[in-house]
Each structure stands twice: as structure tokens, then as C-alpha cells.
Specification:
By secondary structure, the protein is α+β, with helices and mostly antiparallel strands. It has eight helices and 26 strands. The strands form eight sheets. A six-stranded antiparallel beta barrel has the order 3-13-18-17-16-19. A hairpin with a 3-residue loop joins strand 22 and strand 23.
């Protein structure tokens, strides 16, 4: 190793002395300030995943919350190639088979109760309708009887009495005349009629008077009492049967309403039991999972699996819980990179993700199902769609469910298996909550980010392959003056102010400068330097021990070879110390920006990148 460093140092030193003019300090590395377009990027590592990362889940319901629902009876090996329709996983459905048999009995019982309630409703309705009809008939008969009496029997009886009354008056007049004549003729001086005859005629006269008085009394009783008695009696019959009609009608309505409620309740119970039976049958069908397309089988692995905390291994005999993700056959033509970004860059990247607008297509369908002329049928249809059909419907009509209003930030994806084939991509999604971190970086907040690979012509990509993603966060519209980060001195407490050494008349001089935007290697110069100025890239060689402590520069950083760069001031982000050597940062580089507005503070260790030391680390010679 020492020999290699010696050779490297000799080669770089020769290049330096041949390529640059000999200065007053040959150990200083100089850089000429120039204008260039500053590209603000974030580089992170990740792994490939299918874009349609839709895993089949266990749809068997658990008997207890959080408990196991069933177990895996058989599963195809992870990574196996399958054809569409091939069985890839089977869950144990023996318990479901027993449940189905028991549920069928409950369905038959509920159906019998429903039919009995329907029969009871029909019988009670017909019985009460007949009673209403009978009472209405009696009302009409009573009205006819009243009318018959008032306009028939009463009139007839009165005419008969009146006739008899008139005839009795005629008889009375006749016997009155007769008795007067008989009385004159029976006088002694005349003697034409005997006394007994005269007395008989007088008796007849008295009888005629009584007959007239009798018929007159009968007419009076008929008009004043008998007529009113029968009218009241018959009207009472009408009123009574009318009340019976109203009572029967109300009983009919109440009984029908009660029987209808019972019928609906029995029907609802039947539908519930039938729905449960259908649900069990669907669960039995869902116990066999088949490949939706030609492709490769991928087991679901939880994010916590790498910490040894994951449960639910995918293997024969393993227990699975309700809703647990199991297996998938993804579309290999559409891939994404699952990466994590540091919390310091969350705001910039999250605003640059795909902007999706939900159309509410499935909600519209649910609303139409609810608008059924039969409210109960609409309710059942709405519930069935929401509980069972909506996930599959949403997946099938994904294009109608959402609209892409704006694509995310551009990115470049380099798969480690194909390092010479950079792929185009863009930021698809950034998680709103931080991901679970590992034990060694528990204080670092990172956010899961998906970067879509737009180049679908690339073959050979497989889930789980390591990849490096470079996200283009921002850039200057025009070329600006830039300075390498390893030339800067100062920390976050100086805001956007920093210091550097500038060569003036062949000698280094410290100067205050103002910075603008920055990326992992360069920072924009707003004030303090001009194009053509030369700055020192290893300023630690010019600092005293006190100044090294002030600017956070370690003594070891000044022992680097010709290719070693000086780390800048402490960045705003968290992370380990970056290392640089021979012009490249080590694998833990890019740990925190220079701490100025628009910089790249706080990025985690990423892949190697051109440009020297890490923004927030201290430069040191790499082996």
C-alpha cells in the first residue's frame, strides 16, 4: 500500500509540476475560478422494484384481531418464471370449507323465515282487506235501510193511517147525522124510529168519534216518535259500521306495516347470511392465487426484515394474517428505484414529485349504485362494492381514477449491474412520513422516495438490483462563478458567508466571500471573487493550529498526498465524515452541504462523485 501511495504521489506530483507553473508554494493545489452552469443534484442509493408493486394479500378474515387467519399450504419458489394463470400460492382452506357448510344451513333457515314472513304478510293483508270490505258493505246496507224507512215504509204507513183517519171522519159525520135524525124520529109525537134504534145509532156515533181520535193519535205517534226512533236506530247502525270500517282500515295499515317490517328484517337477515356465505366462498376462491401475467414470482419482504424484526415469512406451513402481503408477479417493463432522501432535502424533492389529481371515478360508481329505486337493494349494492369490489375495480380502472397533472423532477438512474447504461427517470412519489431507520443511524430521518425508470427498452432489470439515482433538483439559468467546496473555510454559523485563500501576486491571502446555490462539489460565488482568480484547494496547509480548531479542520487532513482535497466548513446536515482521494470522494462522501441557501445540506453517504471532498466532511487521503 505504501508503495502504491508513493507511486501515486510521484505521478500526481509530476503532473502538477508539469501542468502548472511553479509557485511560491509547490505544495498548494490551485484552482482557477471560472463560470459554469451549476446543476443542483441529489445522489442516493436504492434498489429496483416493480412500478405496479401490487402484491396479493391474504383475504381470509382472522377470527381474532391481529391473529393468524390461515397458513400457507403451498407456494412456488421465489424468482420462478411463470405463465399467466399458473398457480403460484395456495392457502389452507379446510376451516373455510367447514364454515361454508355451517353457513349454508343458516342461509336456508333465514330463507325459510323470510318466506314465512312474506306468507304472513299476504294472509294478514287479505284478511283485513276482507274485513274492511264487509264493514263497508254493512255501512251501505244501513244507509239503504234508513232511506227505505224514511222514504218508503214511513211514507206508506203514514198514508195508510191518514186514509183510515179520513175514512173515520167520514163515518163520524155520517153517524153523527144518523144519531141526530134517529133521536128526532124516536120522539113520542113522531114514533117513526124506536128508542132502541136511536140509542144504537148514538152508540155508533160515539164509536166513530173514538175511531177518529185513535187514528189521529197514531198519526201523531208515527210522526213524532216512531219515525225519529227508526231514523236514529238506522243512522246509529251506519255510524257504527263506519267506525268499524275505519278501525279495520287502520288495523290493515298497522298490520301490513308490522308484517312488512318483519319481512324486511327477515330479508335483511337472509341477505346478511347469504352475503356471508358468498364471502366465505370468495375467501375459498382467494386461497388459490394465480399469476395475472407472464413473469417472475416475487415474495413480499417487509422493510423491517433487514433488522430481524419482520414476521410472516413466505414458506410452506407458515401462518399468515388477514391483509398480509404475500406474493406478486410484477411487470418487469415498468420499474422504480426505492431510495431514501435525507430530511434536509425533503422539501425540495417532495415538491418535485408527480402531481396526481384524483378523479373520484369509483366514488361516482358507488353513488350511482346507491341511487337504486329500491333503497334496500341500493344499500346492499353500495356496501358490497365498497367492501369487496372497490380494490379490484380501482386497480382495473387506475387510468380513470387519477390524472397526472405534472411529472416529477428529472433523474438519472445507474444500475450497478449495467454501469455503462444510464437510464432516464423522474421522481414519482415521496413518502409524507419518515421511514424506519436502522440502529446505527437512529437519529437520521430519511424519507422513502420512488424514482420511476422511464426507459422501458432496457432489458435485464430485476427487482432487488442496486442502483444509484441522481435527482436534478435545481440549476442556474446561466453560467455562474463557482468554487470547489474543498476550498471553503467556515461553518453553518456563518450563514452564506465563507472564507478562502486567493493567490495574490503569487502568495495566498484569506478573503471573505458570499455564496449562493451549491451542490455536492461546487458552490455559486455571489460576491468576493472574479473570473480568473486562483483559490487554494487545500487551505489547511496555510492554517495555524488555532485556526484549524476555529474552522474545524483536523491535523490529519493536511497530510494528504497531491490528490487530497481540503474539506469545507461543517455542513448543515448530519452524517459521517467524507473522504477524498485522487479527486474522488469515498463511499461515505456527500455528508452535508456548505450551509448556505440553496445548498445541499445533510445528504447521506452516497456513491462516488467527481469533485473532491464531501461538503460537510473533512478531507483525508484515501487508500
Amino acid at each position: 500500500m505504501g508503495a502504491l501511495l508513493a507511486v501515486a504521489g510521484t505521478s500526481l506530483g509530476g503532473w502538477y509540476f508539469l501542468g502548472r507553473r511553479h509557485g511560491a508554494r509547490p505544495d498548494l493545489i490551485l484552482h482557477k475560478i471560472k463560470k459554469e452552469k451549476l446543476q443542483i443534484t441529489i445522489t442516493e442509493r436504492g434498489s429496483l422494484e416493480p412500478a405496479d408493486n401490487t402484491f396479493f394479500t391474504c383475504k381470509v378474515k382472522s377470527k381474532t384481531p391481529g391473529g393468524a387467519a390461515t397458513s400457507i399450504r403451498g407456494v412456488i419458489d421465489n424468482g420462478s418464471l411463470v405463465k399467466k394463470g399458473d398457480k403460484i400460492l395456495e392457502l389452507d382452506d379446510s376451516a373455510l370449507q367447514d364454515q361454508r357448510d355451517q353457513q349454508k344451513i343458516l342461509v336456508y333457515q333465514a330463507k325459510a323465515d323470510w318466506k314465512q314472513a312474506d306468507l304472513t304478510l299476504t294472509i294478514n293483508r287479505l284478511t283485513n282487506e276482507a274485513l274492511v270490505g264487509t264493514n263497508q258493505t254493512k255501512v251501505e246496507v244501513s244507509k239503504i235501510i234508513l232511506d227505505e224507512y224514511l222514504n218508503g215504509l214511513y211514507v206508506q204507513l203514514r198514508l195508510d193511517l191518514q186514509n183510515k183517519y179520513d175514512m173515520s171522519q167520514s163515518d163520524l159525520f155520517m153517524w153523527q147525522e144518523r144519531s141526530v135524525w134517529s133521536e128526532r124520529m124516536s120522539r113520542p109525537e113522531r114514533g117513526y124510529v124506536t128508542v132502541s134504534q136511536a140509542e144504537a145509532d148514538e152508540a155508533r156515533h160515539k164509536t166513530a168519534e173514538l175511531t177518529v181520535q185513535n187514528f189521529k193519535t197514531q198519526l201523531h205517534v208515527l210522526d213524532k216518535f216512531t219515525r225519529e226512533k227508526f231514523r236514529t236506530q238506522y243512522q246509529g247502525d251506519i255510524d257504527e259500521w263506519s267506525r268499524q270500517v275505519r278501525l279495520a282500515q287502520e288495523k290493515l295499515e298497522k298490520q301490513v306495516s308490522l308484517d312488512d317490517a318483519v319481512l324486511r328484517a327477515k330479508y335483511a337477515i337472509y341477505q346478511t347470511q347469504l352475503s356471508r356465505l358468498q364471502e366465505i366462498e370468495r375467501e375459498i376462491d382467494d386461497c388459490i392465487i394465480r399469476a395475472p401475467r407472464d413473469g417472475m414470482v416475487v415474495y413480499y419482504v417487509e422493510e423491517r426484515a433487514r433488522f430481524g424484526q419482520a414476521k410472516g415469512m413466505i414458506a410452506n406451513g407458515e401462518l399468515v394474517s388477514e391483509g398480509q402481503k404475500l406474493i406478486a408477479v410484477p411487470d418487469m417493463k415498468r420499474m422504480v428505484v426505492n431510495a431514501r432522501i435525507h430530511e434536509a432535502m425533503y422539501d425540495k424533492v417532495s415538491k418535485g414529485a408527480d402531481r396526481i389529481r384524483q378523479t373520484g371515478f369509483s366514488d361516482t360508481i358507488k353513488g350511482l349504485l346507491a341511487l337504486n329505486p329500491q333503497p334496500l337493494d341500493g344499500l346492499f349494492a353500495y356496501a358490497a362494492f365498497e367492501l369487496d369490489m372497490e380494490p379490484a375495480f380501482t386497480n382495473e380502472h387506475a387510468d380513470e381514477e387519477k390524472i397526472l397533472e405534472r411529472p416529477g423532477l428529472d433523474a438519472v438512474v445507474r444500475v450497478n449491474a449495467f454501469p455503462d447504461r444510464p437510464l432516464k427517470g423522474h421522481v414519482k412519489f415521496v413518502a409524507p412520513a419518515p421511514s424506519q431507520t436502522d440502529f446505527f443511524n437512529s437519529d437520521v430521518k430519511v424519507y422513502q422516495t420512488y424514482i420511476a425508470v422511464d426507459d422501458e427498452s432496457m432489458e435485464g432489470l430485476r427487482p432487488g438490483m442496486d442502483a444509484v439515482v441522481t435527482i436534478n433538483v435545481d440549476s442556474t439559468p446561466e453560467p455562474v462563478l463557482t468554487i470547489p467546496l474543498q476550498a471553503l473555510l467556515g461553518g453553518a454559523d456563518m450563514a452564506n458567508k465563507r472564507r478562502c485563500f486567493v493567490m495574490v501576486d503569487g502568495h495566498p491571502a484569506m478573503r471573505d466571500i458570499t455564496l449562493g446555490k451549491a451542490n455536492e462539489t461546487l458552490a455559486e460565488i455571489v460576491e468576493g471573487l472574479q473570473e480568473g482568480d486562483e483559490v487554494v484547494l487545500n487551505p489547511s496547509l496555510l492554517l495555524s493550529d488555532k485556526e484549524k480548531v476555529k474552522y474545524g479542520v483536523s491535523a490529519s487532513s493536511s497530510r494528504g498526498g497531491p490528490g487530497a482535497g481540503q474539506g469545507g466548513g461543517r455542513g448543515m446536515g448530519k452524517g459521517g465524515r467524507g473522504k477524498s482521494g485522487r479527486g474522488k470522494s469515498g463511499p461515505n462522501g456527500m455528508q452535508g452541504g456548505p450551509g448556505m441557501p440553496g445548498g445541499a445540506p445533510g445528504m447521506r453517504g452516497g456513491p462516488r462523485s467527481q469533485g473532491g471532498a464531501a461538503p460537510g466532511g473533512k478531507a483525508a487521503a484515501s487508500p
